[in-house]
Amino acid sequence: MFFKRRGYLRKEADERLIQTLYELKEVWNKQKEIVERSVEPSGAVLAKLKVDEAKYFFLLKEAKRRKIRMG
Asked: Rounded CA gap, 67 and 61, in Å?
């Protein structure tokens, strides 16, 4: 009984992780596009870009560790 619930919870958490990954990738790409288009980006914009990139790669490593396929 408990093992079925654990599998369900893991699957639900994996789906949330994948959804968050897609959202963060979109945010990171938009931020990167803003920096590329700007003539002289401010330090705050560059810092936000680095933070978004770090978040995305952290979750990507977590998905890889859990062996989740995003396809």
From this structure: 10
47-56, pLDDT tens digit by residue?
A: 999 999 999 9
49 close to 55: Cβ distance less than 8 angstroms: no
Q: Provide the angle, in degrees to the nearest 10, between the axes of the packed helices 43-66 and 2-37.
A: 150
Round to whole Å and give the CA distance between 50 and 38: 16
Question: Tens of pLDDT along 17-28?
Answer: 999 999 999 999
DSSP at 67? T
* Domain count for the chain: 1
Residue 40: domain span: 1-70
Q: Which residue has the higher pLDDT, 20 or 68?
A: 20
